[in-house]
Amino acid sequence: MARILITGSSDGLGQLAAKRLIANGHSVVLHARNASRANDTTKACPGAETVLIADLSSLSETKRMADEVNKLGAFDCIIHNAGLYRGPARMTQDGIPALAVVNTLAPYVLTSLITRPKRIVFLSSEMHQSGSSKNLDDALWVSRGEKPYSEGTAYCDSKLHNVMFAKAFARRWNDVQVNALDPGWVATKMGGSSAPDDPEASVQSYVMLAEGQEKLAKTTGRYFGPGKVLEKESPVSYDEQKQERLLDLLAAFSGVKKPE
After folding, report:
1. Which of 148, 152, 147 is nearest to 87 (CA)?
2. Cα angle 83, 194, 5; round to 5
3. Which of 2, 127, 183, 235 could covalently link to 202 via disulfide, CB atoms 3.0 to 4.6 Å apart?
4. Which family does it belong to (predicted)?
5. Residue 113: CA atoms inside 13 Å, Cβ hemisphere, count?
6. What is the pLDDT of residues 200-250, one digit of tens each?
7. Catalytic: 215?
């Protein structure tokens, strides 16, 4: 039996994956951004170990959640499933867009502060192929700010960051299987009702990477798609100097030391 934490698991694919993992006999810790959603999540997944509450658009709450996770003890797998897609900048108390905090800063902070698990999964998207590294030194939109904010640019860049995380942490930790996952375009709140992909194929990839038992899941630093298939990632994601620039930026902004 594995012990698995899934962020952003109050609905959508995160919750579907949680239910499958619970059915497979694993201990699953869920996450919701507020008490109301946590209550709904508890009802939807009665077999879960517990539900953690933290708004990952807040740096301070993200750090608090990392402390709470560590108090629960060791985990076999952490799936960074939480993410934002559409909408305005929604500048946070930290002075950056909510999407930049949830999609880029939070997974960095949680990975850096939580006791190292055996497996880590960063949720990406096929749209990371349109992400760019030209604004890597302002990945959190600190300098650009709200006026020039573009939800499309911000999302694609953040999903590129997630693939870069998988490669950067896989290089650092040879005892951890660290991978990125594109769950596909599925009819969820984020994907919309017209999304064409099969959620079952997405759940298969979540479960395979969470359990880590299949031969393909024992790889590291790779990028998977739905249906347990390896996909080709953006060439930009392989650039180790750019990976380090991104980590350095996030470490400086968050005050959380870059893991070695």
Report:
1. 152
2. 30
3. 183
4. Belongs to the short-chain dehydrogenases/reductases (SDR) family.
5. 24
6. 999 999 999 999 999 999 999 999 999 999 999 999 999 999 999 999 999
7. no
Q: Which of 108, 155, 206, 223 is catalytic?
A: 155
Domain membership of residue 161 (yes or no) is: yes
pTM of the predicted model, to two decimals? 0.95
pLDDT at 184: 81
Calculate ∠ Cα 163-34-159, nearest 5°: 15
pLDDT attached to residue 194 = 66
User: How far is CA 125 from each of CA 6, 84, 130, 247, rounded to the nearest angstrom?
Assistant: 17, 12, 10, 20
pLDDT band of 86, cuts 50, 70, 90? confident
Q: What percent of the chain has pLDDT over 90?
A: 92
Among residues 63, 159, 206, 223, the one annotated as catalytic is 159
Q: What is the pLDDT of residue 195?
A: 62
Could you tell me if residue 260 is inside a domain? no
CA 70, 62, 107, 142 torsion: positive or negative? negative
pLDDT (0 to 100) of residue 180: 98
Please name which of 137, 135, 163 lies closest in space to residue 150, comparing C-alpha atoms. Answer: 135
* 70-79 confidence digits (pLDDT tens): 999 999 999 9
Domain housing 72: 3-254
**C-alpha neighbours within 13 Å on the C-beta side of residue 177:** 20
Is 259 contained in some domain? no
**Sheet with 3-6: strands ordered across:** 50-53, 27-32, 3-6, 77-80, 119-123, 177-181, 223-225, 229-230
Question: How far apart, in whole angstroms, are the C-alpha atoms of residue 171 and residue 161?
Answer: 15
Count the domains in the chain: 1
CA proximity to 83, closest of 122, 48, 110: 122
- Check which CATH number belongs to the domain holding 239 and give it: 3.40.50.720
